[in-house]
């Protein structure tokens, strides 16, 4: 609409003024905030923006290709995809503690990003090297780090944190979404031409599947989990609640599949199976501080479990998590 159009023009003018003829680097994660920031900055300064997309191997099915297709393919933005999955999985081998896993993933993320920034500077292909680091910081992040939100006083889980990165890289910060709330960021994303489904996606944690595979992370587990999770999300999108005429994806705040590295016995055809278990998790919440498990239709749960067990060889049992937060958290780790 015209209001958003005016907003974009203003924001674009501001970015151009701030950046001048300098270069900007941005870490693209596939999440809503960094995607919208990238689309907006690209609208403003085109090829002066370079996006670095670190694929840690713990993304959802086809997510990396989708991000590349959108930003490099459709928006024609400069995007460097770094396939760092071997590095991440290597460092995670043998590590079972959730907080240790988070620290390893967060730390490697920063290392890989820094290395790319340095390479970019050295490459000289039309580059003076970036002088700005762009981030998709939104207003609630600003408020949170200002300590205004008292609820966050005790950190139960250390979140993906890139604080201090601009100083370490010697870069100035560019944060064009700093004044926006999440719903405004989404509207902006749609107005900039990002697909509705990308912009209205459920939140996805920075450590990705690393905290949705309980205990040690292995490629085999991640591959199974990706396929099971994709089936769950497909069915959530496809199942419409007749009372509201909305999909169960839109009726839930976050929904995903968790990999449980235990084996249970099953039967398939004439044979006995001894395979892994997954848990489905779906919650409704307004602030993610408290959450109710979602009362998904049994018919849908039945379809999801049937499809996962039939289509994903290696998983023979599906459970549904009926725990609310508190005392359970939304993620299992
Ligand atoms: P919990 O599990 O604490 O999750 O109830 C609340 C919200 O935070 C997300 N979450 C994370 N996000 N890095 C992130 O970027 C993390 O390490 C992390 N841990 C949890 C979770 O997905 C939910 O939306």
From TrEMBL:
Molecular-function annotations in GO: ATP binding; GMP synthase activity
One GO CC term on file: cytosol
UniProt KW keywords: ATP-binding, Glutamine amidotransferase, GMP biosynthesis, Ligase, Nucleotide-binding, Purine biosynthesis
Binding site for ATP: 29-35
The reaction(s) this protein catalyses: XMP + L-glutamine + ATP + H2O = GMP + L-glutamate + AMP + diphosphate + 2 H(+)
Enzyme class: ligase
Taxonomic superkingdom: Bacteria
Entry keyword Endoplasmic reticulum: no
Signal peptide segment: none
Enzyme Commission designation: 6.3.5.2
Domain GMPS ATP-PPase: 2-201
Metabolic or biological pathway: Purine metabolism; GMP biosynthesis; GMP from XMP (L-Gln route): step 1/1
Subunit details: Homodimer.
Role summary: Catalyzes the synthesis of GMP from XMP.
Name of the protein in its database record: GMP synthase [glutamine-hydrolyzing]
Gene (UniProt): guaA
Boundaries of the shown chain within the full protein: 202 to 534 of 534
């Amino acid at each position: 609409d015209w209001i958003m159009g005016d907003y974009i023009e203003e924001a674009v003018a501001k970015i151009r003024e701030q950046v001048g003829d300098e270069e900007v680097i941005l870490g693209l994660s596939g999440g809503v905030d960094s995607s919208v920031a990238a689309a907006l900055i690209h609208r403003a300064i085109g090829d002066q923006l370079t996006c670095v997309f670190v694929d840690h191997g713990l993304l959802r099915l086809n997510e990396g290709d989708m991000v590349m297709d959108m930003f490099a393919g459709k928006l024609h933005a400069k995007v460097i995809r770094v396939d760092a999955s071997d590095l991440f999985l290597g460092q995670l081998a043998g590590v079972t503690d959730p907080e240790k896993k988070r620290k390893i993933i967060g730390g490697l993320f920063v290392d890989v990003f820094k290395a790319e920034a340095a390479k970019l500077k050295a490459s000289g292909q039309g580059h003076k090297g970036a002088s700005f680091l762009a981030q998709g910081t939104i207003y609630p992040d600003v408020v949170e780090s200002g300590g205004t939100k008292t609820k966050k006083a005790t950190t139960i889980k250390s979140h993906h944190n890139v604080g201090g990165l601009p100083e370490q890289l010697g870069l100035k910060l560019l944060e064009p979404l700093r004044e926006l709330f999440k719903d405004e960021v989404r509207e902006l994303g749609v107005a900039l031409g990002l697909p509705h489904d990308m912009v209205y996606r459920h939140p996805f944690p920075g450590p990705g599947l690393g905290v949705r595979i309980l205990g040690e992370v292995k490629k085999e587990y991640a591959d199974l989990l990706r396929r099971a999770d994709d089936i769950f999300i497909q069915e959530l999108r496809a199942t419409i609640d007749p009372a509201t005429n909305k999909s169960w994806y839109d009726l839930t705040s976050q929904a995903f599949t968790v990999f449980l590295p235990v084996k249970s016995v099953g039967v398939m055809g004439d044979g006995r199976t001894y395979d892994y278990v997954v848990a489905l998790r779906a919650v409704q919440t307004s602030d993610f501080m408290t959450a109710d498990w979602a009362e998904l239709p049994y018919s849908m749960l039945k379809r999801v479990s049937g499809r996962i067990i039939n289509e994903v060889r290696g998983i023979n049992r599906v459970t549904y998590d009926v725990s609310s937060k508190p005392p359970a958290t939304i993620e299992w780790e």
